[in-house]
Amino acid sequence: MTPRALLVAIVVLAILAIVAGAAAMRSRGGVRAAVGGFDRAPDSVRVRVQVLNATSTRGLARRATMLLRDHGFDVVETGTVSDSRDTTLVLDLSGHPDWARRVARLIGPARIEARPDSSRYLDIAVVLGATWRPPAQPFYP
Questions:
Q1: CB contact at 8 A, 88 and 127
Q2: Which of 130, 115, 137 is nearest to 35 (CA)?
Q3: Using one digit for the tens of pLDDT, what is the confidence trace for 12-68?
Q4: Average pLDDT, the chain
Q5: pLDDT, average across residues 115-140
Q6: With b meaning 16 or more CB within 10 Å and e meaning fewer, what string describes 32-68?
Q7: Long-range contacts of range 95-104, CB-CB < 8 Å, 24 or more positions apart?
Q8: Radius of gyration of the chain from Cα atoms?
Q9: What angle do the packed helices 60-70 and 97-107 form, to 10 degrees?
């Protein structure tokens, strides 16, 4: 085999590997599916979520908001709290533990607590702790 034919064979194999990898990512739902599974908001239900950053890392509430919205949750409020915490807390405010479990599985390791709220403005509140790491953001050129 000549050096030129060997180079052509290597280039063709590299292109095939790239195409196969892209097809595999697309069939699995992309980067977000690998990180958060296929947990989504229930169909035809509006789940109102509040996301609060309880760390000193700027931008975590925004990143969690993007993740939750990508999976069908309606994030209606974001903010920061002054009390720092290590673990992420998902609060079930509306008496729907299934919704809280979906959010907790999507966000990652999180503790779930039921705290009924009679105002019914929010369904779920997420308080992000220092151990939460946002998923990698996709590159959109």
A1: yes
A2: 137
A3: 888 988 888 777 666 554 444 444 445 888 888 999 999 999 999 999 999 999 999
A4: 86
A5: 88
A6: beeebeebebeeeeebbbbbbbbbeeeebbebbbbbb
A7: 96/47, 96/123, 98/42, 99/41, 99/42, 99/47, 99/123, 99/124, 100/124, 102/39, 102/40, 102/41, 102/42, 103/39, 103/49, 103/68, 103/73
A8: 20
A9: 120
| Cα separation, 124 vs 114, whole angstroms | 10
Residue type, 81: V
Residues whose CB is less than 8 angstroms from the CB of residue 100 and which lie 6 or more positions away in sequence, other chains included: 90, 91, 92, 112, 114, 124
User: Which tokens hold the place of 90?
Assistant: 């998902």
Instruction: Please compute the mean of the pLDDT values over residues 63-77 and round it to a whole number.
Output: 95
